[in-house]
Amino acid sequence: MNDDKTLVSLSTLLRDESLYHRAPPYLRARVLAGLPRKSRRMPWFAWRSLASDGALAWAGGGIAGIAASMLAFGMFSLVQPRQPSVVGTEVLSSHVRSMLSQHPIDVLSTDQHTVKPWFNGKLDYAPPVVDLAAQGFPLAGGRLDYVGHRTVAVLIYHYRKHPIDLYVFPTSGGSEAASAAYSADGYSIARWQQDGMNFWAITDAEPAHLHAFVQALRATHARQE
After folding, report:
1. Which of 113, 117, 184, 204 is at 20 to 30 A from 82, Cα to Cα?
2. Which helix (H) or strand (E) segment is 13 a member of?
């Protein structure tokens, strides 16, 4: 009898609309990134159910399902902005132009001690250059570009066959811009500020891989402080 009452209470609780939470946009990318490539095309109706029900769509297995969904939500430290900024649009255009160019890299080197001094005299600041080969993101080189009405440093990393362009330039002062991650025109983009610098990373790799790159880079910078 008590079991019947428990089931009725649980059923009533799960139908309570006050418990519904919308899943973040990048949950879909994270879920698909963990699936075999042939299984990544989730039917639109299935994803629509997951996106609208949020954690409840994962709770069919009871408390364990809710805990799993909360763990997935906790993996995302970056949030999607309401709309791309002007600088974000320029970064996207710059990256696309570089992919179409026959010379996307000005200084071709995997050695951070070769890439960093190459920028000396070409910029009014020294961009931090770190080696992330051990984390799966080897340095490929660097180049100069023009973003936000100034010449900026672009560091090129790779994830497998996917280039990752990292735009680095000083902050302009004032309040700190919120970190963000989003997708545009098939590219994954992330932005953040650290140690007085603006960082913009963009790649055609999946958002989960860019997220791993950002985490590795920020951790390395933090250790070097």
Report:
1. 204
2. helix 2-14
Tell me the two tokens of residue 128. 């931090």
**What's the rounded Cα separation, in Å, for the pair 122 and 215?**
28
Unique residue bearing structure tokens 């026959």: 102
**Relative orientation angle of helices 26-33 and 63-73, to the nearest 10 degrees:** 100
Residue given tokens 């200084």 in the structure block: 107
Integer Cα distance of 221 and 194 in angstroms? 8
Helix or strand or coil: residue 220?
helix
Q: What distances in angstroms separate CA 147 from CA 55, 60, 86, 151, 180, one per listed residue?
A: 40, 48, 10, 6, 18
Please report the domains of the chain, with CATH numbers, ordered by start residue: 2-73 (no CATH), 86-224 (3.30.200.100)
Length of the chain (residues): 225
pTM: 0.65
Q: Which amino acid is residue 118, in one-letter code?
A: W
What are the angstrom distances between the C-alpha of 16 and each of 13, 23, 74, 122, 172? 5, 17, 24, 61, 47
The 10 Å CB-count burial string (b at 16+, else e) for 148-184 is beeebbbbbbbbeebbbbbbbbbeeeeeeeebbbbee
pLDDT tens digit string along 173-191? 765 678 999 999 999 999 9
Rg of the chain, C-alpha, whole Å: 21
pLDDT greater than 70 at residue 81 = no
Cα separation, 55 vs 51, in Å, equals 9
Beta bridge partners of 48: none
